[in-house]
Design goal:
heterodimer; A: 345 residues; mainly alpha; ABC transporter involved in vitamin B12 uptake, BtuC; two-stranded antiparallel ribbon; 15 helices; 74% helix; B: 263 residues; alpha/beta; Rossmann fold; 2 domains; 6-stranded mixed β-sheet; 4-stranded antiparallel β-sheet; 10 strands; 25% strand; disordered N terminus
Chain lengths: 345, 263
């Protein structure tokens, strides 16, 4: 191995690591606030990538009908609740807005010539189609069982993952896809070529991580989500609804998942079932952070990306095994060092 | 017997409007009914206390009123009837609860804890919470000194102050407190009880659940004795403090030393 190869591998590793870091942060965020391990996170990545690919290649996709169906289900549940708890003008209005949004998306998808609009518009449309699936998923599948044990939540989460893989096959077909890069320029650094998409991935990931950090440290809504993670009961007594917190975290996670998919679609060919292995690597990062520490998880996730890239070079057959074996020493270290302290009193 | 009971409710001391009106409230945990048909009123500007032994259902009662527990019966707050009381809604309408366990956000700063107390107001677009923050700091100067510290580092008394301050950030019209003196040194207990009187002067009504019956009866206008999930006695706090049954059960020798400590 010479320096040039090392730099190339490092570039790949950091690119993938940045994506894993984003996913690891979403996994921790969702887990601490709702106690749900978000297994279907990877499907948001593949749906994002494949929707972009469908736009660019001109394939038919019926993904907008998934959104419409889910929003209709969500609205029906809200209406039922509205009737049993008494009418509330603001909530009724909100149901109308959601249905209007679904109608808008259906019309947009059928009137725009998706292949010709600029890439930025394609990306925006992909986000608008897929991100609302996050909060709706929480509303329909998790909100009714929000107080269930973590194991029950995990089982529902796995079921959703399996279902979404199936839906992915139905909507996008078995072929994988790779989209056009955001820009064609390549940077030359000495003798090494830096792919511009690599820079895009790193740049967007850093921007996303920093804005997440600022949102959680500086805004009251961000603090409210942290508060829910720290003390659910206390948060409820402040009028921070767990339903609100759940939907907000699912929206953030869906946004990060879909954005990651759009980012890596020009680098890797993704298939309808590639999501699981990607989110699993984010999960390894999250475990390194003990499912609590954001910075440790981010560092761990980048390390996962790097180790993956280098083991691809040295022992490509064992790439996945090496990455997932990483989890064992960290689990050991975590369980030896953890002292189960009860929260105050 | 029944007639006198209703009469005593009708003569309920205080001239203000009924702020909280609970009738025939039942709460059960599975098959066991912990609160069995409680009627209770708090009028505007009143301090009402609920005393009673351990396991009488006092905490359960407060949790049900604010909607943390499912209940059967009627809860009217500030003129509105709540078919299904839900916490977020009631907190927004001006009901606050300081729970027995404080439930602070231990890994967040004191200032963040307080700001989160105003979450509902912030959501409604009421930006007056910064004034309230200054008021809370002037009520509890110690919180101001430590505002950047994690709330988990506070002592028991300071935690209680923070829990009360956090609830006040929501500008409650009725503040419910569950055992605010629990685990506190007598001196701090006295300080906190003095603050209740201050709060009433500012127009905050208080529903106080206490084991320290003597201190509670001293500060309250009206009192309920809860036993086995039912209201066993009720009346003006001063009258109950002189009632031989109350003296025997709640102000007797067992609580004598508390009195000595706190006087």
């Amino acid at each position: 191995m010479n320096l040039q190869i090392a730099i190339l591998l490092g570039q790949d590793g950091i690119t993938n690591g940045a994506i894993y870091a984003l996913l690891a942060l979403s996994i921790i965020l969702v887990f601490t606030v709702t106690r749900i391990l978000l297994i279907p996170l990877g499907e948001f990545v593949t749906f994002g990538a494949l929707t972009m690919y469908a736009f660019q290649s001109g394939h038919e996709t019926s993904i907008v009908w998934l959104l419409a169906a889910m929003i209709a289900l969500d609205a029906a549940l809200d209406l039922k609740q509205l009737f049993s708890n008494g009418m509330d003008a603001r909530k009724a209005q909100w149901i109308g807005i959601k249905l209007g949004y679904a109608a808008l998306m259906v019309t947009l998808m059928h009137t725009l010539s998706l292949q010709e609009i600029p890439m930025l518009a394609q990306a925006l449309l992909t986000l608008m189609l897929l991100v609302p699936l996050g909060p709706v998923m929480y509303r329909v599948f998790f909100q009714p069982i929000a107080s269930a044990q973590p194991l029950v939540l995990l089982i529902v989460s796995i079921a959703l993952h399996v279902t979404m893989v199936g839906i992915g096959l139905l909507m996008f077909g078995p072929e994988g896809g790779r989209t056009a890069p955001f820009s064609d320029t390549a940077l030359r650094l000495g003798s090494v070529m830096l792919k511009s998409q690599t820079l895009w991935v790193i740049l967007v990931s850093v921007v996303l991580i920093v804005s997440l950090f600022l949102a959680f440290e500086r805004t009251l809504y961000g603090k409210a989500l942290r508060a829910t993670a720290v003390n659910r009961m206390g948060a409820r007594l402040m009028g921070i609804s767990p339903d609100f917190a759940g939907k907000a975290t699912f929206a953030l996670a869906a946004f990060i998942g879909v954005a990651s998919g759009i980012l890596i679609a020009p680098i890797t060919t993704l298939y309808y079932d590639s999501g699981f292995i990607i989110s699993l690597k984010g999960f390894v990062g999250a475990i390194i952070g003990g499912l609590i520490s954001y910075p440790l998880a981010a560092i761990g996730a980048v390390a996962v990306g790097l180790i993956e890239a280098f083991s691809m070079f040295w022992a490509s057959n064992y790439k996945e095994i090496i990455v997932f074996t990483l989890i064992i020493p960290f689990l050991l270290w975590r369980s030896i060092n953890s002292n189960h302290v009860e929260d105050e009193e | 017997m029944n007639a006198t009971a209703t009469q005593s409710t009708a003569h309920h001391q205080g001239s203000g409007e009924r702020l909280l009106n609970i009738s025939d409230l039942h709460v059960s945990y599975g098959m066991v009914e912990a609160v069995t048909g409680v009627d209770l009123q708090v009028r505007e500007g009143q301090i009402v206390t609920v005393i009673g032994p351990n396991g009488a259902g006092k905490t359960t009662l407060l949790s049900a009123i604010i909607g943390m527990l499912k209940s059967k019966g009627e809860v009217h707050f500030d003129g509105h009837f709540y078919k299904v009381p839900d916490v977020e809604n009631l907190v927004g309408k001006g009901l606050g609860l300081v729970p027995e366990k404080r439930e602070l956000f231990t890994s967040m700063s004191i200032e963040d804890n307080l700001l989160l107390g105003a979450f509902q107001r912030f959501r409604r677009g009421d930006r007056g919470y910064e004034t309230t923050l200054a008021e809370v700091y002037s009520l509890f100067p110690r919180l101001w000194e430590r505002r950047k510290q994690m709330s988990g580092t506070l002592s028991g008394g300071e935690r209680q102050m923070l829990a009360i301050g956090r609830a006040l950030m929501g500008k409650p019209r009725l503040l419910m407190l569950d055992e605010p003196s629990l685990g506190l040194a007598p001196l701090i207990t006295r300080e906190i009880f003095r603050i209740f009187a201050d709060l009433r002067r500012q127009g905050v009504s208080i529903l106080l659940v206490e084991q320290n019956a003597r201190a509670a009866l001293k500060v309250a206008d009206y009192a309920y004795v809860l036993e086995g999930g039912k209201v066993a006695m009720q009346g003006k706090a001063a009258d109950l403090a002189n009632d031989p049954r109350v003296i025997e059960a709640y102000l007797g020798l067992a609580s004598k030393h508390q009195e000595l400590l706190s006087s």
